[in-house]
Design a protein that fits this description.
Helix content is 34%, strand content 22%. With 886 residues, it is an alpha+beta fold. A hairpin with a 4-residue loop joins β33 and β34. The longest helix has 24 residues. The structure holds one RNA strand of 85 nucleotides.
Length: 886
RNA sequence: GCGGACGUGGCGAAACUGGUAGACGCAAGGGACUUAAAAUCCCUCGGGCUUGCCCGUGCGGGUUCGAUCCCCGCCGUCCGCACCA
């Protein structure tokens, strides 16, 4: 039904956009045209946009919606801009939850995982993401992990893999190693059992070999958040110091050791030394403990202190004097006691230190407990060296050396250098006494897990030949499917036949490695595999992977700021070194964006249990918001806004939202309001606002379609047509710039502004016809829909059709900007007198200073504010502001 | 403890990084249409008063013609690391 208005046929406003019908329709059209399948040999410039692939938990959550909506905006925008866009999706499909499900529900991990993948795939597809599903991969697929095993073998041959014993968190109930984050207050997160420290032989990736490069190249990652780079830099923890060999007084060493090597970053404080300290598991400590039962007991006690952070926090500094005396490197007559101390770590430096209490808080706490005293050797600026003392607080700031003989008066840096220089050139037993050494906090990456649902480590243990890699032609080592989870421990280890094999070298009886790889390995190269996901004979085709990498824009959660990103950076380097790729600088991700969480109010019933948002109705009496239970009507307490979590029941199911509002509404809301790096609050009002805008766009587009019917290509000349064109091109420029910078909330605002501006010109305030107005509307409608398309792709296709445009908006090139429409002929400048705004002045855009001065001075408001005083100074900032100083 | 980020209306936030503070949205209030509701449309919306001005970006100083933005000192919130010598 139509009515006549202003001479135009007009669709009745009651006609609503039906997302439920339109969305599946357009998705089918995209599919049929294979719109988002990417060819590797496409000649256009490449753009690789990737969101962190999900763990297939079974359901997507709002965090996924936000993450994938952002990536999709970038993908669709870049496609319109003429790039050959790679935008793939896959599944981080190995991991513990599948095994937990197996234990609890008697369902096989594989079955559980693939069922979850199927349901999550269909959920993601309902979002209308422009993904190349033909490249889909799952890390639990032997076709994927085969290549991971093959690279493990290559890394092993290249010396990037190591096998050594390491201390691990052992859960005695589940009989498995736990990651640090799985130990909560000293107990296993699942079993609740007290976690033990065990020494196990483990496989390691030698990430420390790359520590220097991983640290250095952070400087080149200028499209990463500064915060993430800093976190990685701290994690790698590069420090420059000195290894110093202290001679031991022979009469004090029970087992004939003659020296002790320590590591320090403060060689300048050597004259402030009061003691040396060893880690409890330092070889010298162990050897002395063999003949000293008291020390042995002390060492045992140190081990019992848990690894839980709380325990470390509260632990008092404890030491045990071994009786050994070390000789000061600059004074043969000066000896220092050697302690074993609980706060010294064996796996950093040499596991031994010298303590300078005046300038290190830990050492100060220690000497204060054992009465060893301290000597300040750095005097803070402005302090009198004669009176400067340290009692409870160590001084670690700048200053000049004191009490340090030949170092006195030097800066800290100069003193460090002088000590290093002197000790380097001095030799004992033909070796220099000291050596400069760069140390890293970063440890090698232990990848062994006593788990079933992971990538098997392709190794065979033979009594004759030792550790033998599985020959490549025998890969993949496939997980056996006939396993049970009714007893704790690793099903691979207790499988009746799987681990029994013959040695590839000698043919004798041998055993498979039953550990599987940390799932972080799986996610460390998936982005490379996406470039040629079905390649059968190799993990990657170097030509292809080098074409696509680095990922131009990677988007994901800040929770992966360290591990996943660091491991991936290591992996690309290792792949480069083993000929699998030749990615520049070994950097996999050129651009990184970490998005904020989706948070929601929490609700609690009177009995203290959490209540789901869907069971809550919010009532408002104008000033106060109250919540009641939907069915019982009982009052519900509105709690704080928190990250959506199952335990607090403050989740909103994307399926429900898409079913009732459509995917476009969900996407639009997730992109609006908050800056993408910040948390966004999910509110019912917010979704409804987004849904209202969808309908508003629909009505607006219909009205534009009616008004542009008569477009004949004639250029608009009237004020309304010009206003329409200016609004459209302004939005075009702004949205383009903001998508490039991932400022989606501002894109949303620009589109609201454009909608408002177009509406203003549609509402008839005068004669409807004006030369070229129809043409202006035609152009503006087209631009409006194209700007919307990356964010609300289904609605945009429907609108595109209503506007009578050819083809699909998903395939249309980005509109061409007319920069002349962005500049105004005249400009209105605020006028300040002594920095306070008093008037506005409208002048020609290119008006010279004299003209502006004259115009400004002629204004009554300015004259009044100047109170008859002469202008001392005239500040004119072109296009910005005028300030008169009197 | 160390390192970092952030504090702007009732709320989420803008402000082209030194140039009109509060764009855009949400909520709220008033009005129109309607038998009524929903939807839609129009108006108001930082605070104060003398309706023109004053105050206002966590607090206190400073630099500047001019400060949300730069500097110094506090207060608060959040995040990361946590005995790394």
């Amino acid at each position: 039904m139509t009515v006549l208005l202003d001479g135009y046929a007009r669709t009745m406003r009651s006609e609503r956009y039906n997302a439920k019908e339109a969305e599946p329709k357009w998705r089918q059209v995209w599919n049929e045209h294979d719109l988002f399948a990417t060819k590797n040999d496409d000649p256009r410039p490449k753009y690789y946009v990737l969101e962190m692939f999900p763990y297939p938990s079974g359901r997507i959550h709002m965090g996924h919606v936000r993450n994938y909506a952002m990536g999709d905006v970038v993908a669709r925008y870049k496609r319109a801009r003429g790039f050959n866009v790679l935008h793939p999706m896959g599944w981080d499909a190995f991991g513990m939850p599948a095994e937990n499900a197996a234990m609890q529900n008697k369902v096989h991990p594989k079955e559980w995982t693939y069922a979850n993948i199927a349901s999550m795939r269909s959920q993601l597809q309902s979002m209308g993401l422009s993904l190349d599903w033909s490249r889909e991969i799952a890390t639990c697929d032997p076709a994927y992990y085969k290549h991971q095993q093959s690279m493990f073998v290559d890394f092993l041959k290249a010396g990037i893999v190591d096998r050594k014993t390491a201390k691990v968190n052992w859960d005695p109930v589940d009989q498995t190693v736990l990651a640090n984050e799985q130990v909560i207050d000293g107990r296993g997160w699942r079993s609740g059992a007290l976690v033990e420290q065990r020494e196990l032989t483990q496989w390691f990736f030698k990430i420390t070999d790359f520590a220097q490069d991983l640290s250095d190249k952070l400087d080149t990652l200028d499209r990463w958040p500064e915060k993430v780079r800093l976190m990685q830099r701290n994690w790698i923890g590069r420090s420059e110091g000195l290894l110093v060999r202290f001679a031991l007084a022979p009469e004090t060493t029970p087992n004939g050791d003659s020296e002790l090597e320590i590591y320090t970053t403060r060689p300048d404080t050597l004259f402030g030394a009061r003691f040396l300290a060893l880690a409890p598991d330092h070889p010298l400590a162990r050897s002395v403990a063999e003949t000293n039962p008291e020390l042995a007991a002390f060492i045992e006690e140190c081990k019992r202190v848990g690894t839980a952070q709380e325990a470390i926090d509260k632990a008092e500094k404890l030491g045990f004097d071994t009786g050994i005396r070390a000789v000061h490197p600059f004074d043969p007559s000066w000896t220092l006691p050697v302690y074993v101390a609980n706060f010294i770590l064996m796996d950093y430096g040499t596991g031994a230190i010298f303590g300078c209490p005046a300038h290190d808080q830990r050492d100060l706490d220690f000497v204060n407990k054992y009465g060893l005293g301290n000597t300040p050797v750095v005097c803070p600026p402005g302090q009198d060296p004669a009176t400067f003392t340290v009692t409870d607080t160590a001084y670690d700031g700048e200053g000049r050396m004191i009490n340090s003989r030949f170092l006195d008066g030097m800066t800290i840096e100069a003193a460090k250098d002088e000590v290093a220089r002197r000790l380097e050139s001095e030799t004992r037993h033909n070796r220099p006494v000291a050596e400069r050494k760069v140390n890293f906090r970063l440890r090698d990456w232990g990848i062994s897990r006593q788990r079933y649902w992971g990538c098997p480590i392709p190794i065979i243990h033979c009594d004759e030949c030792g550790v033998v890699p599985v020959p490549k032609e025998q890969l993949p080592v496939v997980l056996p499917e006939d396993v049970s989870f009714d007893v704790p421990g690793n099903p691979l280890d207790r499988h009746p036949t799987w681990k029994h094999v013959s040695c590839p070298q000698c043919g004798g009886k041998a055993r498979r490695e039953t550990d599987t790889m940390d799932t972080f390995v799986d996610s460390s190269w998936y982005f490379a595999r996406f470039t040629d996901p079905h390649l059968a004979d190799a993990p990657t085709d170097p030509g292809v992977v080098d074409h696509w990498l680095p990922v131009d824009q990677y988007i994901g959660g800040i929770e992966h700021a360290i591990l996943h990103l660091l491991y991936s950076r290591f992996f690309t380097r290792a792949m480069n070194q083993t000929g699998h790729s030749n990615v520049r600088d070994g950097e996999p991700f050129a651009g990184l964006f970490t998005q904020g969480m989706v948070v929601h109010e929490t609700y609690k019933a009177s009995d203290g249990t959490w209540v789901q948002p869907s069971e809550v109705r919010i009532e408002s009496d104008g000033s106060q918001r109250r919540a009641v239970h939907v069915t019982t009507g009982a009052p519900v307490t509105i709690g704080s806004v928190e990250k959506m979590s199952k335990s607090k029941k403050n989740t909103v199911d994307p399926d429900d939202i898409i079913a009732s509002y459509g995917a476009d509404t969900a996407r639009w809301f997730m992109l609006s309001d908050s800056p993408p790096e910040r948390d966004v609050i999910w509110t019912e009002e917010g979704v409804q606002g987004a849904a209202r805008f969808v309908q508003r766009v629909w009505r607006l587009v219909s009205e534009i379609a009616e008004r542009s019917g008569a477009a004949d290509g004639a250029a608009p000349t009237g004020p309304r047509g010009t206003a329409v064109r200016k609004a459209a091109h302004k939005a075009l420029a702004a949205v383009g710039e903001d998508v490039e910078r991932l400022r989606f909330n501002r894109c949303v605002a620009h589109l609201y502004e454009l909608a408002n501006a177009l509406q203003e010109q549609i509402n008839p305030t005068g004669p409807a016809s004006e030369p070229g107005l129809a043409e202006a509307f035609r152009e503006a409608g087209r631009i409006f829909v194209q700007l919307l398309a990356p964010m609300m792709p289904h609605l945009a296709e429907e609108a595109w059709q209503v506007l009578g445009q050819d083809g699909l908006v998903a395939q249309a090139s980005w509109p061409k900007l007319d920069p002349s429409l962005l500049v105004e002929d005249t400009v209105t400048l605020p006028v300040q007198v002594n920095g306070k705004k008093r008037a506005d002045v409208t002048v020609a855009r290119d008006a010279d200073q004299a003209t502006i001065e004259a115009t400004v001075l002629s204004l009554d408001a300015v004259q009044k504010a100047m109170e008859g005083k002469p202008a001392r100074k005239f500040i004119v900032v072109p296009q910005r502001i005028v300030n008169v100083v009197v």
